[in-house]
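Structure (tokenized):
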């Protein structure tokens, strides 16, 4: 690397602001970043996410549309999902690659689409190592991953050297395809991370031993790539700044790697947090915003190239604070760009209240990835479906009634109004949000408030007439002369009255009564039903942060401006065993979690045998299971409920014995029942066309992902 190009990159970290040209809302975020040979128009980068579209050439038209929409939305730079440098590196059999001239032609569709909108695009080169879902996997040592089915083969020196060449060839082809740079994936437990850390690397040759040996592979890759692509090409390296696994690196080792990578030719250092197999959550919604940025800031002190922060950054205020305080030069967000392709443009205009905020639920992005499905977004069903779910302006505006103001109804109202229809939204209660109002008050799910805020603001902006406290009947709908009626009346909690003796006692309440703040519970509680809501209720009853809902009262919870205080970063780290020391010397940054004294005794029960929470979402379910375990919740499976008395609840245990659980209160989470009485009966001939969506259509396991998509698809077809 030339000295001049190194100096160019070093100069790029300067954070001075030209006030005459600065953005009035977020000046640091919208300051251009000079990389010496090119300039980024702002500090906001869409990070890498595997969508599933990368893996099949025939989906590259859809992939191009997906990136083009986010380029149009203002992102300065975007990074693709992982593209493998060779067959061994596939995530999936026959996964996305950049190996041949044919690959170049496919990828050109993506780069051309992005460049039309003054944005840069970076191709991530990802070798899965032992995380691949195929039998050809390799790693630094032949140690099987706990999250994948195959045992890897130990890479030979010849194999390593060939892989270095494969990275270089892949990067050269990426440049030919029109990419502005590449990102080398060196974190999250993928191949290079497997070499960098003693967690997997048990080699005794030149690629093992101390950090100088363990980093040789990564450094060789960067040197080879820089040689192959020349000086005027962005190389991003995603570095694991904290491993969060046993025998993970300490901060001194991470800094050593960062310095060596800068010297080898990296343009921008990106942040990676934790391995996929780590038992510390890193991106689920209960992780506080910007929970790891201080570790990024520590690395930044020791290198001269721009440093990029990542993980649980989803709103402009957080991002601006990070750059303004000098903790990082750039902000990478991945899932927030799934949730809102126009995040950057909205921030630039000071319209943060109109951003469709990522709630970090993982249900439609990461969960889909690990199930080998196309990714999308719970709060934005258009994500990765830009060519299929299209909101075209209507040439024939219709009068549309939406009955029900939960997320299904709000989604339908939003899309229908966006397309130019005349929309009236009816809600029987005095608040919009439906079942989301119960989810949002669970400690760790504070982000769910943002979805309701987004819809309320958008519906107001689009001129939707909202009628609260309005119980609709069929006659009313007919009198209104609506051409379309969307029935989004949702669900009601299933009652056990008449099915279980004592279910009508005052100490027996529904989850809705508890989570609305209408009723309270005692010090010992039995929760009937261990689905997602049962877990949510158990977490609420045992969480040590957050104010009791009955103390706040229903009116406070209905106030659109109310936001609960999330768990602090320090408390969260204590609970999960993550160090507060940015110069950590504990392996992987792990410490002993602080013991939790439960605030009340909770029994979580289900009738079926087997592990509780088996049906929870793949990438977040383990977090919920770990939470209730650490908070002392007693899990009871395979029981039959006999009766509830003033003494407690009588059950028959799996051994067939009758047993009394002495509890003060019982919370019923035994499912939901659809409310669909407004739908026409057989033989009716209403003037309007009726559509049934969301929970009203299917009550099984409250599914916001399906409800929001239902609403959008129905409205897109009106």
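Design, position by position:
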């Amino acid at each position: 690397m030339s000295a001049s190009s190194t100096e160019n990159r070093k100069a790029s970290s300067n954070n001075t602001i030209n006030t005459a040209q600065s953005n009035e809302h977020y000046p640091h975020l919208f300051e251009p970043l000079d990389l010496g040979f090119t300039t980024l128009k702002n500090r906001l980068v869409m990070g890498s996410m595997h969508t599933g579209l990368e893996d099949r050439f025939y989906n590259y038209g859809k992939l191009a549309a997906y990136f083009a929409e986010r380029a149009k939305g203002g992102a300065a730079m975007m990074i693709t999902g992982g593209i493998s440098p060779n067959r061994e590196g596939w995530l999936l059999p026959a996964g996305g690659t950049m190996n041949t001239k044919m690959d170049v032609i496919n990828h050109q569709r993506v780069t051309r689409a992005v460049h039309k909108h003054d944005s840069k695009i970076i191709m991530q080169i990802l070798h899965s190592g032992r995380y691949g879902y195929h039998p050809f996997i390799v790693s630094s040592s032949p140690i099987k991953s706990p999250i994948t089915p195959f045992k890897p083969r130990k890479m030979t020196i010849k194999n390593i050297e060939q892989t270095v060449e494969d990275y270089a060839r892949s990067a050269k082809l990426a440049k030919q395809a029109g990419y502005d740079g590449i990102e080398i994936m060196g974190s999250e437990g993928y191949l290079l991370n497997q070499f960098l850390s003693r967690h997997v690397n048990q080699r005794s040759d030149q690629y093992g031993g101390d950090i100088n040996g363990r980093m040789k592979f990564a450094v060789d890759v960067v040197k080879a790539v820089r040689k192959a692509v020349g000086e005027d090409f962005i190389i991003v390296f995603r570095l694991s700044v904290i491993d969060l696994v046993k025998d993970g690196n300490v901060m001194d080792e991470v800094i050593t790697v960062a310095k060596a990578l800068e010297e080898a030719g990296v343009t921008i250092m990106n942040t990676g947090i934790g391995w996929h197999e780590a038992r510390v959550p890193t991106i689920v919604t209960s992780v506080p915003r910007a929970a790891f940025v201080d570790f990024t800031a520590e690395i930044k002190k020791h290198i001269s190239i721009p440093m990029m922060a990542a993980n649980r950054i989803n709103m402009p205020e957080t991002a601006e604070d990070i750059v303004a305080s000098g903790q990082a030069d750039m902000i990478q967000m991945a899932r927030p760009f799934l949730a809102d392709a126009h995040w950057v443009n909205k921030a630039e205009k000071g319209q943060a209240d109109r951003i469709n905020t990522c709630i970090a639920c993982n249900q439609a992005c990461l969960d889909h990835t690990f199930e080998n499905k196309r990714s999308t977004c719970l709060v934005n069903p258009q994500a990765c479906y830009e060519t299929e779910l299209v909101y075209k302006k209507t040439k024939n505006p219709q009068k549309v009634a939406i009955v029900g103001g939960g997320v299904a109804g709000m989604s339908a109202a939003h899309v229908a109004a966006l397309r130019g229809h005349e929309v009236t939204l009816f809600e029987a209660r005095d608040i919009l949000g439906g079942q989301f109002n119960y989810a949002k008050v669970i400690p760790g799910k504070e982000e769910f408030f943002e979805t309701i805020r987004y819809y309320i603001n958008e519906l107001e902006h689009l001129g939707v007439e909202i009628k609260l406290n309005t119980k609709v009947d069929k006659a009313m709908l007919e009198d209104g002369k609506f051409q379309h009626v969307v029935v989004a009346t949702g669900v009601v909690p299933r009652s056990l009255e008449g099915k279980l003796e004592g279910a009508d006692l005052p100490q027996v309440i529904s989850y809705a009564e508890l989570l609305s703040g209408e009723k309270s519970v005692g010090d010992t509680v039995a929760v009937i039903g261990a689905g997602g809501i049962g877990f949510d209720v158990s977490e609420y009853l045992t969480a040590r942060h957050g104010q009791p809902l009955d103390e706040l009262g229903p009116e406070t919870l209905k106030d659109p401006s109310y936001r609960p205080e999330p768990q602090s970063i320090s408390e969260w780290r204590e609970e999960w065993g993550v160090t507060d020391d940015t110069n950590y010397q504990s392996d992987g940054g792990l410490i002993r979690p602080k013991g939790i004294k439960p605030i009340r005794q909770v029994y979580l029960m289900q009738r079926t045998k087997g592990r509780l929470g088996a049906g929870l979402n793949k990438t977040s379910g383990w977090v919920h299971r770990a939470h209730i375990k650490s908070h002392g919740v007693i899990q009871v499976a395979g029981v039959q409920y006999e009766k509830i008395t003033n003494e407690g609840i009588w059950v028959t245990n799996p051994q067939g014995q009758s047993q009394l659980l002495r509890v003060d209160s019982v919370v019923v989470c035994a499912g939901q029942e659809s409310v669909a009485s407004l739908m026409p009966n057989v033989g009716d001939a209403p003037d309007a066309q009726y559509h049934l969506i969301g929970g009203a259509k299917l009550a099984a396991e409250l599914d916001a992902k399906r409800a929001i998509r239902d609403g959008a698809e129905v409205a897109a077809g009106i």
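Reviewer-requested clarification: Residues 1-17 have pLDDT under 50 and may be disordered. The chain has 25 helices and 27 strands.
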